[in-house]
Specification:
Number of strands: 9
Helix content: 40-55%
Shape: globular
Distance between the termini: 33 Å
Number of helices: 9
Largest sheet: 7 strands, mixed
Strand content: 15-25%
Strand order of the largest sheet: 4-3-5-1-7-8-6
Length: about 220
């Protein structure tokens, strides 16, 4: 039976990550250490190839994808952007400690939103809409594999909503440059809208050669 595989990869370390800032819609470029980490992962592990390539609109995601897949022309998916932290963009938790609204937001959970930002619930609905559209487009065009470079929060949201085995959102947390592969089977997706999370990314080279075969490797 035909299935569809989507490789979800978190972008490399950006400057804002190093400084502990809330980086949602803020454009924070890949740090030098982030670029180096992705290059080292390409040398020691394998990122599987794909037929189509997608990225969040953030440059740190587009640039990460181009390091991993230098021949690819990624399609940007607006719904795969990180959460909008509003007035708290590009600030650290330490800088926000004196703002009483920050403590309220931390205490209220998913229904609360930063000033001029979006709540966790709105973020989740946006991401899920984008992912469902991506799956529908793959099925319509017959594209059986795709790579999506996006944000850690986006990946956790997708897998908490659709991934099997079922797990809490925080269980799907992954480091920069890492991620998961999810397999969508049309008959199961149509009934239950779930997919099998079957692989951690990137893949150790010995395992990749055994499972993917030498034709699925690409030059650094």
């Amino acid at each position: 039976m035909k299935s569809y595989t989507i490789h979800l990869i978190r972008h490399g370390i950006c400057e804002g990550n190093l400084e502990g800032r809330y980086i949602g819609r803020t454009e924070s470029p890949l740090a030098d250490v982030g670029m180096q980490q992705i290059l080292e992962l390409k040398q020691t592990t394998t990122y599987p190839d794909a037929e189509s390539f997608y990225a969040s609109p953030s440059t740190r995601c587009v640039d990460t994808l181009r390091i991993i897949y230098p021949w690819a022309e990624p399609v940007v998916i607006l719904e795969m952007a990180e959460c909008d932290f509003g007035d708290w963009e590009n600030k650290t938790a330490e800088e926000l400690q004196k703002d009483p609204r920050f403590s309220e937001w931390m205490a209220q959970g998913q229904n609360a939103a930063p000033p001029n930002g979006e709540s966790s619930m709105v973020f989740m609905q946006r991401v899920c809409k984008g992912f469902e559209t991506l799956v529908s487009n793959m099925m319509f065009t017959g594209t059986t594999s795709a790579a999506l470079v996006t944000h850690g929060g986006v990946i956790m949201t997708i897998l908490a909503a659709y991934g099997l085995p079922r797990a809490k959102m925080t269980d799907w947390m992954c480091d920069p440059g890492y991620g998961y592969s999810i397999r969508i089977t049309p008959s199961i997706w149509t009934k239950s809208m779930v997919g099998e999370v079957f692989q951690l990314l990137p893949i150790p080279n010995e395992k990749a050669e055994e499972e993917l075969g030498p034709d699925n490797f690409f030059d650094i």
